[in-house]
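Hello, quick one for you while I still have it in my head. A protein chain has come my way and I'm curious about its shape. Can you walk me through what the tokens say about the fold? No rush at all, and the record is pasted right below.
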Amino acid sequence: MSLIAQVSRGRIAAPRRVLVYGVHGIGKSSFAASAERPIVIQTEDGLANIDVARFPLATKFGDVLAALGELYTEEHEYRTVVIDSLDWLERLIHAEVCTKRGVETMEDVGYGKAFTFALTQWREFLAGLDALRNERGMQVILIAHAAIEKFANPETETYDRYAPRLQKLASALVQEWCDECLFATYRVLTRTSSEGFDRKRVQGIGTGERVLRTTERPAHVAKNRLAMPDEIPLDFATYAAFARGEQPIITSNDTNSQEN
């Protein structure tokens, strides 16, 4: 059959690969636990208060690969694999690199080389997730904490932004691999008041409302391939609706308010 005869078009439904990162305690793990039949590969001990299936705590990189292998070869009912969290997985990867190189720390390998070597383990990990997604039909949810990084934008001055708390090479690799990279944060309003002598004071006011930012902006890294609005509630059901090709109605107030 010729290649022309094999041409197709249309949206292909496939399990999603999503990275959710944000500040500590905002509800990233709860978001993942609300997915369809999840099982967690835990690299940090933070699920005590969440009722979800989980593997024993991974203490080395081989434990993570073993869990992925079990999900690939054994019969089970799980439909979503969750990694909680990526930044603690990175510690296991760095320990693996140090063991293989016979050194105590990543810095002992040589300037910058250790983190390049670590990409081998990262690619092995992502290949395992791809096998689960492509051959076992499992959705993938990756959880990471947030960090503030300097971003040297060639079109502007350097500025701070939120990004996953990973080494830059690893972060870039994972972000490219994912279908969605979502930033979990609290909605913040601003109030501007006059203090006299043409001076103004801007106050940040937290509402407690938790949201997901889906599109990259100067303040944060994000992306999505589902035509989602810039901001949705931190709610798995809302995200899942977009993943199914639906367009749920989202009502929210303006992100910023001005009061004089």
Summary: Confidence is low (pLDDT under 50) at residues 253-260. The CA atoms of residues 49 and 187 lie 25 Å apart. The radius of gyration is 21 Å. Strands lie at 17-22, 38-42, 53-54, 80-84, 139-151, 159-164, 180-196, 199-213, 231-233.
